[in-house]
């Protein structure tokens, strides 16, 4: 992908950059993209890319997340629903403090993550156990809710699982 980005940008940043595969954008910076769109648009596209192309916990992924938070002007650790949708797969790299502070706003995006760090898992359990999410408390969940949160099921502990109606 790095080589492909070099070829694509050989004569400058193409104006139709949004039509290229989203994974290519992982190897451009927001300033490169600025000529063709806003940083919000860049990170919305990055959020749809396969972040696993970059190693989890890598400096490049951490830098992307920091730049996204700065671009979206997210104060503190609370991410609203609109910004969660823009961040897309980037929410997979948010630490537990962001997950706790944002309540249930991140659950839908988090359910698409491949893996979690222990701090993230604990935060997800805390948010779900609180019941203060758009999904409500586990005792009120349906099969549809479980389908929407299916990627998070491995994180649920016994106390959450026993509350879900059969």
Automatic annotation (TrEMBL):
The keyword rRNA-binding does not apply. Keywords: Cell adhesion, Glycoprotein, Membrane, Signal. It is found in: Membrane. GO terms for biological process: cell-matrix adhesion. GO terms for cellular component: cell surface; membrane. It holds the Pfam family Mesothelin. The keyword Glycoprotein applies. It comes from the Eukaryota. Belongs to the mesothelin family. This is MSLN protein. It comes from Urocolius indicus. The lineage of its organism: Eukaryota, Metazoa, Chordata, Craniata, Vertebrata. The gene is Msln_0.
């Amino acid at each position: 992908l790095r080589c492909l980005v070099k070829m694509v940008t050989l004569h400058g940043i193409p104006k139709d950059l949004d039509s290229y595969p989203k994974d290519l954008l992982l190897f451009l910076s927001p300033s490169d993209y600025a000529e063709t769109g806003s940083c919000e648009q860049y990170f919305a596209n990055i959020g749809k890319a396969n972040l696993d192309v970059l190693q989890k916990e890598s400096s490049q992924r951490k830098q992307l997340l920091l730049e996204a938070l700065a671009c979206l002007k997210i104060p503190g650790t609370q991410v609203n629903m609109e910004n969660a949708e823009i961040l897309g797969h980037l929410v997979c790299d948010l630490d537990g403090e962001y997950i706790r502070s944002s309540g249930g706003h991140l659950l839908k995006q988090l359910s698409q993550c491949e893996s979690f760090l222990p701090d993230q898992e604990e935060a997800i359990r805390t948010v779900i156990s609180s019941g203060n999410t758009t999904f409500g408390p586990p005792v009120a969940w349906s099969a549809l809710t479980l389908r929407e949160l299916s990627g998070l099921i491995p994180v649920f502990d016994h106390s959450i699982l026993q509350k879900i109606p059969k």
